[in-house]
Amino acid sequence: MTIIIDGKEISKKILAEIKAETKLLYNRYEVKPGLAVIIVGNNPASKIYVKRKRQTCQSLDFYSEDYDLDESITEKELLNLISDLNNEPSIHGILVQLPLPKHLNEKKILNFINYQKDVDGFHPINQASLLTNESLILPCTPLGILELLKIYNIEIEGKHSVIIGRSNIVGKPLSLMLLRENATVTICHSKTFNLEHYTKQADILISAVGKPQFIKENMVKENSVVIDVGINRLEDGKLVGDVDFENVKNKVYAITPVPGGVGPMTIAMLMKNTLLACKKLSL
Ligand code: NAD
């Protein structure tokens, strides 16, 4: 029987562990992990993500600061806010929800966050640390995927991992993290010729494209592991991944559903990174 990888359940356990450690930390040192969550404008999807992150912070008894900024904010004003947060001892993590409105230079803003408080793991210093195997703060989605593979005892070493998508937040860092686990890694993207040729060889297939029904049954290898990172909202409001779940699930050894797979793990890893940053900066 196919294993349906339950990211929701696993993330609950991880969050319970984080909550317990947060309590210990407070009892011993009177320190609470502090996360500042910044959202600019009214992107409906971003608002949902931010709401979830803030609720999770509360449920863990983290200290959190919410910044809901008007679409018209200038780059200078936003940089000033980040500068204040960079210097604020009660804040250990700064999260700027993406995408930002067009007049704000996303790269410049993300790079301005103190890399030790960059709990998303997007800062060039954190990203570069992956290349040198130092791994300062690791990006949340790839970290969550690795956790799932480990918790389900899915062997990575020597396995052919095929990643579709080369973004800085999923595909690229994930490729390095899998490489470090001794996988053989192939990265495919929008310019790859004959995608199926690669996906059919994958022992572990990871799709981070953002297109519903993109991965069909005939594209996957029998008894492989399929990780669906995609989040796509259909016209009827239903949330689906990149994978044709109903048909693919019958062919594979294990698969993540959407929702309830990678998504909840990403938030759990964000909280884990905030706790780690807190310990590093405060103790
Ligand atoms: P992106 O949106 O920046 O880019 C998409 C990637 O898909 C690109 O690298 C592109 O080369 C590739 N691609 C596009 N068309 C392709 C094709 N026809 N064949 C092969 N490759 C193709 O990537 P992203 O920010 O990593 O997001 C990808 C998806 O993952 C989105 O649906 C996003 O919402 C979702 N996502 C989910 C989580 C989570 O926590 N579950 C986190 C981040 C992103």
Summarize this structure as a short list of keywords or feature phrases:
3-stranded parallel β-sheet; 11 strands; single chain; 6-stranded parallel β-sheet; 10 helices; Rossmann fold; 283 residues; globular
What does this structure look like?
The chain has 283 residues and is of the alpha/beta class. It has 2 domains: 85 residues, Leucine Dehydrogenase, chain A, domain 1 (Rossmann fold); 124 residues, NAD(P)-binding Rossmann-like Domain (Rossmann fold, 3-Layer(aba) Sandwich). The protein is built from 10 helices and 11 strands. The strands form 3 sheets. Strands 1-11-8-7-5-6 form a 6-stranded parallel sheet. Strand 5, helix 7 and strand 6 form a beta-alpha-beta unit. The longest helix has 23 residues. The structure holds nicotinamide-adenine-dinucleotide. The site of nicotinamide-adenine-dinucleotide has 23 residues, from helix 10.
Task: Tell me briefly what this model is.
The protein has 283 residues and is an alpha/beta fold. It is built from ten helices and eleven strands.
CATH architecture of the largest domain: 3-Layer(aba) Sandwich
The helix-and-strand class reads: alpha/beta
General shape: globular
What fraction strand?
15-25%
Mean pLDDT: 97
Tally the helices: what do you get?
Answer: 10
SSE ordering: EHEHEHEHHHEHEHEEEEHEH
Name given to the CATH homologous superfamily of the largest domain: NAD(P)-binding Rossmann-like Domain
Distance between the termini: 47 Å
- Characterize the biggest β-sheet: 6 strands, parallel
Helical amount: 40-55%
Number of strands: 11
